[in-house]
Write a structure and sequence with these properties.
Elements lengths: L3 H7 L12 H9 L6 H11 L3 H8 L1
Helix pairs in contact: 3-4
């Protein structure tokens, strides 16, 4: 299960802080369990100030 909502809130980010991913797509990932694409993971990592490996570790 993806925990991106927990990670996003831990980093004190709101939906608008995730650049390049629509609010709707982010909500699907966070609330509906949709698995993010590699491109979405890269954008999530960048928004959280993490490298891709650390991002995947935190949200998986």
């Amino acid at each position: 299960m993806w925990r991106s909502l927990t990670v996003r809130k831990a980093h004190l980010l709101n939906l608008d802080a995730i650049k390049g991913i629509s609010d709707r797509h982010l909500k699907r990932i966070e609330n509906e369990g949709q698995h993010p694409t590699l491109d979405a993971l890269k954008k999530l990592a960048a928004s959280h100030g993490l490298d891709l490996e650390d991002c995947v570790t935190q949200v998986n």
